[in-house]
Design brief:
The structure holds two protein chains of two kinds.
Chain A lengths: L28 H13 L3 E5 L3 H6 L11 E3 L5 H17 L9 E7 H7 L1 H10 L4 E6 L39 H6 L5 E5 L4 H13 L4 E6 L3 H4 L6 H10 L6 E4 L2 E4 L9 H5 L10 H23 L2
Parallel strand pairs in A: 1-2, 1-3, 3-4, 4-6, 5-6
Antiparallel strand pairs in A: 5-7, 7-8
Chain B lengths: L35 E5 L9 H5 L5 E3 L5 E3 L9 H5 L5 E5 L3
The chains are: A alpha/beta, B alpha+beta.
The complex binds thiamine diphosphate (TPP), iron/sulfur cluster (SF4) (3 copies) and magnesium ion.
The site of magnesium ion has 7 residues of chain A, from helix 4.
């Protein structure tokens, strides 16, 4: 890798808020994302988490990987639970029943929990304006139950419920644009991130925590098991997603877009697609189609960022 | 040491199945999952901490001499540290020997 793109871990919080001994697969970049998010948030944090890989691997009763308060939720309601925590604890602070303190109220879920099943409660929480952060760990399918497609699975990816074959290219629909849906709620902070760019990720988490009101973070989380790649390549594929413009890193502060990283040079999309088992069946022509969809999405973000 | 789930009677569970001991999952040693182990060439290590930052199992520790090394109680052998080390001083070695 580029020698200087990541430097000095001394600048990073040393405390681990997730303990070793969790059951995530080898090379899981979703749990790496979670680890980095918690480092940026620090100890005064309460997390409500929807079911999914990160919940299952961290909480097999009677054990927990969490070193901070954490509440397990059903698939749909982590945003609602965190809304309640925030409103309840703030009321207790107002009434003098709890010492006033800055606490990070954080809801977390996978892409299935966020883009499909928990969308309603998330929309409600963003609209009500709670001082909270929602973190979506997007591994582009329902991984925990065996790689089923979600509305966040990209076009052309083969999953167990969108299998590629003679009659189908795999996922036939386009990836739902969750960050844009969050922006449409006029919340003060929305950002995309990827653990392959750890400093960018942690800065965004800190900004989300500082800004009063709701924040939405969408984190591309490479899943070696579901993407069918070797576990040691999890970081590399995250970097490729960003460097091919497939997953742009940007933030939206009070509606103003800013790309936080502009790939230079932009790598050919083929480098990202080929090598992943979920895209193995794609032809040259399919690559071209995906590239043209990707380009139009990316150009929209560039245009919005340049307007500032 | 937490009891195994099949040894716990329901009366012994906290209300809401609350776990009161933070981070007790560390009792579970994931090192047994491993088929390959990272070996660091100490002399070449520039102590940048990249391996530490990218390890999904929080199992890279700083040795007294300042270089980085894996805690084999937890290392699952994913190979990310070896892949990402900027000087290439980590090699994955088969546990089979
Ligand atoms: C209402 C409901 N439907 C289905 C399930 C089963 N289920 C548990 S986790 C999961 C997959 C979660 O996918 P995602 O949110 O993307 O998280 P990931 O596991 O990929 O991190 C499913 C389908 C459930 N627990 N509740
Ligand atoms: S299935 Fe994917 S996201 Fe889930 S624990 Fe394994 S690698 Fe991580
Ligand atoms: S092989 Fe994987 S689990 Fe083991 S120390 Fe390296 S990054 Fe961590
Ligand atoms: S990444 Fe390599 S050079 Fe950097 S601390 Fe780890 S072993 Fe040493
Ligand atoms: Mg998922």
């Amino acid at each position: 890798m580029d020698k200087y793109s990541v430097f000095s871990a001394r600048l990073v919080e040393q405390t681990e808020y997730m303990a070793s001994g969790h059951r995530a697969c080898q090379g899981c970049a979703e749990v790496l994302a979670l680890r980095l998010v918690l480092k940026a948030l620090g100890r005064d944090t309460i997390v409500a988490m929807s079911t999914g890989c990160m919940e299952i691997i961290s909480s097999p009763l009677p054990l927990t990987s969490w070193n901070i308060p954490w509440i397990h939720n059903a698939f749909e309601n982590s945003s609602a639970v965190v809304s309640g925590c925030e409103s309840g604890m703030k009321a207790m602070m107002r009434k003098g029943k709890l010492a006033p303190k800055k606490i990070n109220f954080v809801a977390m879920g996978g892409d299935g929990a966020t883009a499909d099943i928990g969308m309603g409660p998330l929309s409600g929480a963003l609209e009500r304006g709670h001082d909270m952060i929602y973190v979506c760990y997007d591994n582009e399918a329902y991984m925990n139950t065996g790689i089923q497609r979600s509305s966040s699975t990209p076009y052309g990816a083969s999953t167990t419920t969108s299998p590629a074959g003679k009659a189908s290219i795999g996922q036939q629909t386009r990836k739902k644009n969750m960050p844009q849906i969050a922006v449409a709620h006029n919340v003060p902070y929305v950002a995309t991130a990827c653990p392959s760019f750890p400093f960018d990720l942690m800065e965004k988490v800190k900004r989300a925590a500082e800004i009063p009101g709701p924040a939405y973070l969408h984190i591309l989380s490479v899943c070696p098991t579901g993407w069918r790649i070797p576990p040691d390549e999890a970081i590399r594929y995250g970097r490729l997603a960003v460097d091919t413009c497939m997953f742009p890193l940007y933030e939206v502060v009070d509606g103003k877009y800013r790309l936080t990283y502009r790939p230079n040079p932009v790598l050919p999309l083929k480098e990202y697609l080929s090598g992943q088992g979920r895209y193995r069946h794609l032809t040259e022509k399919d690559h071209e189609k995906i590239e043209s969809m990707m380009k139009s999405d990316y150009e929209k973000i560039v245009k919005l960022s340049d307007e500032v | 040491m937490a009891k195994a789930m099949d040894e716990i009677k329901w009366q012994e569970l906290e209300i809401g199945a609350v776990v009161t001991e933070p981070g007790n999952a560390a009792e579970y040693k994931t090192g047994s999952w491993r088929s390959e182990r990272p070996v660091v060439q100490k002399e070449q290590c520039i102590k940048c901490g990249v391996c530490w930052l990218f390890c999904p199992d929080m199992c890279i520790i700083r040795a007294v001499e300042g270089h980085f090394t894996a805690n084999l109680n937890y290392c699952k052998g994913c190979g990310i540290c070896a892949r990402e080390c900027p000087v290439g001083c980590i090699t994955m070695i088969s546990e089979e020997g």
